[in-house]
Structure formats: structure tokens, C-alpha cells
Amino acid sequence: MARPKKRFQQLIEEIDRTPWGPAEQALVAEAVALAIEIGDERLEYEARMRQTASANMVGATDVMLNSFAWCLAHHDADPQRFPADLDNGGADLMWQFKWMASSLRSSPAFSQEQIAAVLDDMESHYRAAGLGLSGVLTARFEDAWDAGRFDAAEALRVQLEATPRDEHSHCDACSRSQFAGFFAETDRDADAIRLVEEMIEGGFSCGEEPEHALSRVLLPYLRAGRTEDAKTAHLRSYRLAKDNPDNLRIVANNIVFAAITGNEARALALIEKHVAWLAHDGLNVDAHFAALTAFAVALDRVTAAGHGDTPVRGADAPALVPLLGAHDGPWSAADLAAAAWSTAERIGAQFDERDGTDGHARSLARMRALADERYDVPIRSDAFVAPTPATTPADPEAWYERAMQLAQFGAEQETLAALPHALEVDDPAQRAQLLSMHLGILVALDRVDEAERLLPERIAALRAAGNEAQADLEERLKLATFGLHTDETMAALEEELAAADRLPAWSRGDLAISRASLHLRAEEPDAALDLAELAARSFAEAEDTRLSNTTTLVAIGAVLSKGDLDAGRTLLDRFLAQDDLSAGHRAHALQTRARVRGGTGAYQDGATDADEVCRLLAELGATRALADAHVLAGALWEDAEEPEKAVARYRLAARLQDDGDRTGVDFRLARAMLRAGDAEEAAELFGDVLQREEDAETPAGSRAMTASLLARSLAESGEFGQAVGAHGYAAELFGQAEAHADQAMAMTEQAKILARFEEHDDAVRLLEGAADIARRAPEAVGALSEVLHSLGQAYGGRGDERAFPLFDEVAALAQEHEAGWLLADVTDSRGRALAQLGRIDESVAAALTAADGFAALGDQGAAGSSELFAGRVLAGNDRPADAVPVYRSALDHAESFPPLRQVAALELGDVLEALGRHAEAAEVRALVEN
Predict the structure, then answer these.
(1) Residue 514: which of 527, 504, 501, 502 has the closest Cα?
(2) pTM for the complete prediction?
């Protein structure tokens, strides 16, 4: 049995270093099974102790209860063989006791007598072990509060605060969070806020803290008028809680916040993301109650905002039927709100009957009272799709027009959806046109077999319309005129074109445009243009405006494929000036012009075109195409340095996209949010995108880019600890992708944060590693110079002579690539490093040289900053008279930079005062007042 025992020990070691989650759960389950197989109850005890803790953290209540009961029975039978504490750094058996009563209380299936028995058993075990009673009082306080016995809970809270803390007391984070929640529920908002802010300022954290505490003070913050604090707390709380189904209550609190702060679309999105969690832990019914009431509040707000008919994605999952009941089709927001209230009322009544109180009824009343509360705290991560002006066509003729417009734009899926309705028209000529579009789409989607089966119907419609020549032509050519690209179809088209004079004008045009399209696909634009000209003449002769305009768009595509953007733009301008364009053709041309304008740097004009495309497609009801058009508009507004407008477009695109297609749009949305200054919201969304990319096993390089932007968002949100971890993960992924320059930059950003918090040794080690990696990509001059410069600055700050060869190397790169600003910057860094070594004259000379370089490039602020440093060096080394002219020059350069000018003026005033030049000092200090 040696080998299984060795494997068991390996499993235990791996469990103890693996974070909570599915991977850790699987290891624990394997360890329990292996211990049972070995037949060693002591090993099984070690595994089950870990299983209890694991199940508690991930919300597997049934596993936790069974595992704890097994461990407690074995401990009671033989405390020596099965000790309460395994000394592994995890929760001991007496600590785990605290989880049991709350777990039983969370389901009305357990009686009040059973809960009381567990609490009494816990107290007797604590007393027998000689332990303090803080943990027992905590459990009794939680029991009274959850049951709605508020007077008893308050008395226990007071007693608990007076009880000395011991090793089984709640930690600093959990105790503050718990009392904050109680205070918030008993209308003591200021006390709740005070406790949570103590926690945050003290840096206290635990398994579900600070996210739970932050969620508990969202309403108190709002009611206190501290809306920005509430927003920050919400974004941080949700970001930390969103990946663990056991955090359902925390997410519920955040959904309520979104609902009552004017963020109904966000509330709906969060419900859709987390509604499946209702099926996660069947015994945590009290969390279901909290979530259902939160969902109901939010969905009522969605309905009041005019979106009650919006489907709630994910709510129709079979696993939710036992809780929500059966429903015909997807749940609408309004219907699900009613069902959520009804289910919550039923669950609440079961709890109140069990507890003999009205605690849950009062909770329901508080939630319903939120209907009267509203705060304005904009968060821009989600948006409703604005109701489009499009109306459902009333008859086959209207459907025919809709299908034609959609096809002329190129909205294949929407056209396919409209065709069954449109094909009910009586006119065989119209049917023939519709069938032609259907065939073209099927071929484009590589559904050739379906197209072959449909072709006879098209030919029959042509004959019914009296168009025998075209029917005969298509009978000979099969799918050649519908875009099928094979050697045979091309040869057949060429043969028919050679003898086309005998055909009617429309058929000649059809042959020419069909062959032109194949030339275009084969990247033969000149041939495509020649045939497009022939097609245009033929359709003009046949007086078919629709196909004449289609042909013009093909010709424009050929011109653009030759790279002649100016000619293409001119043709597009002329085309869009026509008054005979359909909405579909106009939208197609505008979209093409938007791309052309973007390609030539006219981003704002291109974005304006793309916005008009969105308007036209909304009128046509082209949902999928509309999502793509919003993405184009967002990209162009982003390129136009208008991230706020980009955010609005990407939000709409994300809402229109299918869930499986949202990752790319959400990445763009998060990036635009970051550029717009919404770093906290961007961090949340980048985290979601990264998780989806992990699940989809996206290539490492792509995940690395997401992780890098996540890190930047976290840093700009003030979450520096998480930012360090995210930069580290990005560096690891860039390494896997062999993207050496990006890997080095991620390590450099990580080092900068560490240095900011005085972790200089770790920062230098990272930078040294980054420099080695950056040298593997010498072509990435920007990254190489940034890494070497940062390492040089780190060395220089410690008075390490190794800084100077690095500065020399960066300066050489700057001169080689004519990077004047970088040369000035590294010269400034050299001056600061020289000052650390006491080489004053060299330091001042370098700083002033840097200032001259910055000034020559027009960067007056940087010039003033370098001079300010030089002045400080001189003044600090008993050369105040020499410092005065340097400070005065800094003042001149800082004229447009008030903070810099203020500092320079104050310091110069002090220098002049020390020199006895009091009038000059007063004059300079007056600059500060002005």
C-alpha cells in the first residue's frame, strides 16, 4: 500500500496549495476516495477535514454537512487519533462547527429544534475543550438575526463585543462585516459604514471579504448621499464576488444597487449572468430567497423602464423549473419578476413558520419598499437595445420589400428569416426575385445541396413570370449565376458570355455581374471592372434600377480592391448622392464609405457614416447586422479619440450579440471604458472576457493582452495588489506565446507597482529578468529602451553604478532612432542617479541638458521639472545662489503648469529668503497667490 499512500500525501500537499474552486474540489474528492480505498480512517479524516472546508467555501452544503458529521463522530470517539486541529493552517473542527448551525438555518427543511441542538452541541464541545465562547456567541447571534429575533440578536451582539476575543473568534474582516450587515438591516447606516471603512482602511480581508461587507453598505452609502463611494464599493464588491456561486447573496445585493441607481440594463445583465446559481446549492434556500427578492426588485425596474417584454436569457434552464415553475418559452422580465416575488413569498413563509417569527415577511416588505427609492449613479457597462422604429410587415407585399432591402444590404441571416413570409406573394416575378436571393445566400453559406434542391423552384417561377430565356439560361448554368465558384461554373459563364448577344438585356447583365463577382473574389479587379461596365449597360437597357445600383457597388468594390481609396471614395460620394437608392443599398454604401474613411484617417466622418448605417438597419430590423454596424461605429469613434461615444456603440452591440459572439465586443467595450476613464468598470469586464477566453482555451497571446489590460484597469482603480498579480499572469502568458517584448513590458509594469510600495528588491529582480527577456527581441526598440531605462532608474535610485551603462545604451538607441524626447528623458534620469552618488556638478549638468532637450521639443512642463530638480540639488548642497537662476528658468517653463509653477515659486522663495533677499522672496511667493 506504499504507493497509494504516497499518492495520498501528494494529493494533500497539492490540496493545501490549490485555491478554492473546481480544481481543488476534484483533488479533495480524489483524496477522500483514495483514503477509503486504502482503508485508513486517519487518512480519511485528514481528507474529510479538508473536504468540509472546501465545501463551505464553494457552497456545497450537503457535502459539508455529511463530511463534518463524519469527522465529529470520529473525533468524539477517539480525540487522540482524530484531533480537532490537524495543524495544517486550515480551519480546525471546532471552527468548522460555526458553519453548521448557519447551514442548517439556511434551509426550512431543518427544524428550529435541530438548529438549537447543533448550537448546544457546539457549546458543550467548546466548554469540554476549554475554549473561549466567542465562536459560540457568534453562532447564536447569527441564528437570532437570521430568524428575525432582532432584540435577542442585539443582546447577543452586545455580549459578544464584551467577550474577550480568542482563536475561534471571527477574524477582523468577518466580524466587522457581520455587524455592519446587522446595523444596515436595523437602520444604523452610519455604524455600518464606519465598520466597513475600518475594514478597508485596515486592509482586513478573508474568504468572502471585503466583497460581502462592501455589498452590505451599498444602500447605506446611497442613503447618506455618498454616491461615488457607493459606486466604487459596488464595482469592487461585484468584481471580487462574481466568480463563486457561493457568493449569491453578495451578487444579489449588487443587483439591487444596480436596479435602484438607474442601471436597469446592468441589473438585467447581472441576473442573466447569475440566475443559474439558483440551482447551485439546493440546501442554501435562504440565499435563494435573497436572490429572488433582488431579482424581483430589479426586474420590476426593468419593466418600469419600458423593457418588461425583454427575454431574460438563462432563466428557462431546466434546472430552474423546480424553483421558478414551468413556463412556456423564454421568461420575459415582467413575467419573471412576478414569479420571483411569488417564489420568494412562498419560501419566506416556510422560514417564518419554522422560526415562529415574521423575519422574512419583514425582509420582503423592505425589498418592496425599495420601489420608492431611486438614485442617479451612472454605470455604463450595459445598455438596453433601444426599441427600433421597424414594424413587423403587415402582408406578403410588405415582407417582399423588407426581404429585398435586407438582401441589398447583405444581411444574410435576416433575409433568410424574412423569406418564408415574403414568398407568400402571388406575383411569380416577385417570387422569382426572392428565390434568386435565397439561392445566392445558400451558396454564400456553403449550403450548396440545399441550393440545388431549390433551383427548380426558381426556374419554375421564371417560367410562370414569362421569362423563358432566363429560365433556359439557369437550367443550363445551374448555380453558376448564384455565386458558385468552380472551374466548371467559370467556364460555363465564359461560354455563355461569348454568345450573350442572342440573350435579352437583363440576362446579359446577369451573366456579366455573375462573372464580375467571381473575378472580384479571385482578386482580379480589372477583369471585374470590365464586366461590371457591361452589366451596367445591360441593366440600364433593361431599366432595372435595383440591379444597376447593385452593379455600381460591385464596381466600387473592384476599385477599392485595387487600393485606389481616393477613386473609391469619389465613386461612393457620387453613388450616395443618387435619389434612387433603396435603404439597403444606401446602408451598404455608407458602411463601405465608413471603412474607407477610417482607412484614410477620417475617423470622425467614418463614424458618422457608421451611425447612419445603424439607424437604417434598425429601421429594417436587421438585428445581427446592426450589432456588427455598432461595432464598426464604436471602432471608428475609438480611433477618433472619442471613447465615450465608442462605449455607447459597443454597449449596444454587446446587447445585440449572441452570448457566444460577445467576447470580442466586450473586449472592445472594456478597452473603450478604460480610455474613457472608467477603470473600475473596465476591470470588471476585462475579468469576464479573460474568464471566457480561459474557458475557450484561447491562444496565450490573446489572453495575455486581455490580462495586461485587466492589470492596467486594476492599477488605475487603485487595486494595486490585484494589478501586480494580473501583470504577472500576463507576463507568463506572453512568455508562452514567445512574445518577448510584451512579456518584458508586463514584468516592468509589475515592477513599477512593487517599487511604488517600497518593494525595491523584488522590483529590481523583476526588471533584471525583464531586461534579459527584452534583449531577445532587439527589433522591439520601444520595449527594449523602456525596460532598460526602468532598470537603470531602479539602480540609480539605490546609488548603483550599474545604472550608467544602461542609460548609455538607451541614449544610443534614442539617437539611432531620432527619439529626441527619450534622449532628454534618459538624460534626466542620469542626472537623478548622479545626485544619488553625490556627483553634484555632473548631476546638475545632466538635468539642465535634459531641460534644454525637452524645451527644444516643446515640452515645457518636462523642461521645468528637470530644472526644478537641478535647483533642488544645488540648494540642497549649499549652493543657493547658483540655484536661483535655475529656479527662475523652471518658473518660466512652468507658466502653463500651475502645480509645477506653485512648487517652484515656493521653493525659490525659501532659497531667496535664506539668502536674505526678502523683497525678491515676497515677489516670487506672490506668484502662488496669483
Answers:
(1) 527
(2) 0.81
